[in-house]
Amino acid sequence: MVSPQRRRLRAFTLVELIVLIVIMGVAAYALLSMFRETLPRSPSPSQFTQAAHCAQERMELILGRRVALGTLGFISLALDPSGAATCPGNAALTVTVTGVNPAVAWAVDVAPGRYRLITVSVASAGIQLAEQNALIANY
After folding, report:
1. In this model, does residue 77 exceed pLDDT 60?
2. What DSSP assignment string belongs to 33-79?
3. What is the rounded CA–CA span in Å between residue 113 and residue 137?
């Protein structure tokens, strides 16, 4: 059996609880005010979706061109013939393609020149929204 004096030492006092509530309230206010400032500037889910569709569209164009050119498609500098820096339906999105012109070899390539890593990045106002990667091989 625990003595009443020991039982009282294990419990929180009302003052300690009030201090804890005040500290938690100040921390919650600071956290929520930070979200209030950053949320309006962050991309919306629809922008992420549009960027993903744009990246997929460009990657499909590149891979389709690779298939159409056959073995020449690996060494051709015309894998990304569109040359457009933006998506057709959204001029606010900027598309960057690496690994095509000039050819950038894959860093893990055991036989140099057999593989190429192509990356399509889509950004808006300097914020990267989507990225697609494809590894193509020269067989």
Report:
1. no
2. HHHHHHGGGSPPHHHHHHHHHHHHHHHHHHHHHHHHHTTHHHH-S-S
3. 9
Rg, the chain, Cα only: 28
d(CA 137, CA 73): 10
Q: What is the pLDDT of residue 20?
A: 94
Helix and strand tally (H, E) in the chain? Answer: 4, 4
Contacts of 37 (CB under 8 A, 6+ apart): none
> Domain-by-domain residue ranges, the chain?
4-41, 45-137
Residues 6+ apart with CB under 8 A from 16: none
Q: Is the pTM of this model over 0.90?
A: no
Distance CA 43, CA 24 (A): 30
Q: What is the dihedral of CA 3, 8, 11, 13, to 10 degrees?
A: 170
Shortest CA distance to 121 belongs to which of 111, 133, 112, 113?
133
Token pair 């001029």: residue: 91
